[in-house]
Amino acid sequence: MFAPIPITGDELPDGSLVLTYDDGPGPNTLRVAEYLSGMGIEATFFVVGAFAEKQPEVLARVRALGHRLGNHTWTHKKGGLTGQLVEDGVADIVDELKRTAALLGRLAEPIAFRAPWGLWSPAVAAALSADPILDSEHVGHIHWTIDCSDWAAWRDGVDPTIVATWYRVHTRTMRKGIVLMHDYTADLPVVAAANRSAELTRALVPMLIADGFRFVPLAAVPIS
Length: 224
What we know:
Elements: E1 2-7, E2 16-24, H1 29-38, E3 44-47, H2 49-52, H3 56-64, E4 68-71, H4 80-88, H5 90-104, E5 111-113, H6 122-129, H7 132-137, E6 138-142, E7 146-147, H8 150-156, H9 160-174, E8 177-182, H10 189-193, H11 197-210, E9 214-215
Parallel strand pairs: 1-6, 2-3, 2-8, 2-9, 3-4, 4-5, 5-6, 7-8
Helix pairs in contact: 1-11, 4-5, 9-11
């Protein structure tokens, strides 16, 4: 089901957080997944097909650790699906999702979908929903509530502990929701190489636990 309006964590109970990671898999993906698994936390990793195709063993390991894999399109094209729909047409954006979905295989629950850049519109939702198989296999677009642009921090060389405090402050303000981080960067190779998501996660999770937050899986987010 592709909803015209983005799906957020606004209806989660107070104090509940869902951890999500975009743009991988990359060199930090397994480090993040293994740490969270050891903490008893299920995260969702929205993978880019072009990267995932080359690392099937990473996908298998992330899933074996108890995490959920999501569809983040094949190319993560700049301008997102909204621009791609206008420039390239329906068939192109449908292919973006189908190719990545094929890598993920059949799952016990619908494939969570997040649009690149978070760019979404009723027109894109309608175009994807017109493919009955694609529509029946997916749920999305899964947006976010808490985002501190960690990718920009890596670009600027900010220490992960400082970035963790940004997320902590934002989380205290929002009190609940879907947290967006990046275990890789799809479009900026220099930023991708500087990614420190594993260190960010190790610094942030204990802070949020100390603040009384609890981590829930994406399946806890109401889908209407």
